[in-house]
Amino acid sequence: MCGIVGYTGKQRAAPLILEGLKRLEYRGYDSAGIAVPAADGFHVTKKIGRVANLEVETNRHKVAGNYGIGHTRWATHGGVTQENAHPHVSSDGAIVLIHNGVIENYTSIKKFLLGRGYTFKSETDTEALCNLIAYHYAKEPKAAADGESRLLESVRKTLLHVEGTYGIVVMGIDTPGELVCARKGSPLILGIGDGENLVASDVAAIVSRTQNVVYLKDGELARHTPASFSLSTVNEGDIKAVIDQVTWSIADAELGTHAHFMEKEIFEQPTALENTMRGRFSEDGSTAQFGGLNLSAAEFRQIDRFMFCACGTAWHACLVTEHLIERFARVPVEVDYASEFRYRNAPLHSNTLFFVMSQSGETIDTLAALREAKRKGYRVLAVNNVVGSTIAREADGGIYQHVGPEVGVASTKAFTSQLLIGAMMALYIGRMRDMSFSDGAAYVNALKAAPNLVREVLKQAPAIRKIAERFAQYSDMLFLGRLSLFPIALEGALKLKEISYIHAEGYPAAEMKHGPIALISEQCPSVFLVTKGEMFAKVVSSMQEVKARKGLIIAICTEGLELPAGLADELITIPDCDEAVLPIVATIPVQLLSYYIAVIRECDVDKPRNLAKSVTVE
Ligand code: F6R
User: What is the pTM of this model?
Assistant: First the structure.
């Protein structure tokens, strides 16, 4: 959602902060701002819209200064205005601050401060936090007796009175070169450099300057100067920091020859799948193995039910996983939206193993579902892409996706990697139960074939672009599939609506008769995911029902299936493949179709309106 970048060192801060902010724009934005020290206080520049607007303004003023903070805002409290954009400066001019999260008791804080002469310019909860730090800063002695930082102390005192969530970076008027950061429920990562230190809400913003990072935990505070950093907690003194290494480089988060990150990430999928499965098959080639489950095979064998929670695209991956585990391992699986699970107090079976899936590992609802399940005493494992994310840290164990940074807001390579992990889990659990050695070995071979099958489908990109040209101007579309391809229909509809703003719905094909069929007309095309086996004839009859109502049909169909002549207006053929990998292979055409339709409609594919890559507020 909002993005945070802070820098203190020897370089001019503004260009480095702007570069970091640009790398965070994919997380969601509606305005941006920057603050650096000036002779008479802070030089604060804010602009509505893109970071590019802010850059023009910042360059116009040639802002100097070797430390500073910057922010991209995704509005929660208060509209999209320059006043509401961050950084916020306290009314006495002593404190400047950027904030991600929501301060729940800001009205009472504001009332307290209004009574003490502080004034407010914006409608944000953040300004209350900023003025409260200023209130404590004014009361702190300029040179703290025990050598403790005055700024750090005032932030610490403030946070004792704050309810809600925050990732903040603060600068004080009398404390040059110093940045104080604190986190509760909103990610912050410290970058530890050589003669310079950084902070950001996402590794992408700092990895061009350092790969040494500290993932701040909830309740922790950090103090950066150019030459040092220290860590403490809100309630106690200093603590020891663990420095981690980022495993990817800035090149992984760059566009290269691609027009958009979404396109790049769609085409990276064969390699991403190879990376997801690397080293994860047993030596005898008959099952999967995962290093980080923190659960012995004997313990895993005791589990007789699985519960999966996630949001959005990751929730679709859970639905496919449910199908595969139930089909191949014959163990019951339940899937819930994390946002619903956290409040619905669902009764859970005692031998349930809980899983959350999250590319970012920061989605607030998924995190809350994890915490709720843990609070009830369940062991929770996470399928997650971003190493060191909050979900990865709080889970009892899990499976990293290893697909590298996903920058496009619309999830693509992370989704197919989650599908692969789901298929591998079905194998792992199945082999503990009734799946034979030879069935396991055949299943492993089927999974290993997935990257090349995806490569085959990607070769059809030019043909799919042509189909997109024919369908780009419609305003409604249906996506229909059955069994494991029903979640892919949901995913196709989500991809299309989020990046092209075409209204689209996904349904199990047979459900069409129970309502959506009313939408069918020449104006509402349908995308059918056609399955082989027993469902083939049934999907074909759903297609006939659409055709009878003059609906246009795009069929995504495995090789070798013969559709009645003239039934499909457009046909995309995918290679015949094993059931375990079919959802992965069938995903590629719906991703490409959505992508090309959005490009033809001249939509901002990588930064769709109102969306954020990582939804860190409720
Ligand atoms: C859609 C999309 C979102 C995310 C959802 C969960 O393309 O990307 O629906 O899947 O916001 O995000 P993560 O997986 O980071 O928890």
Answer: 0.85
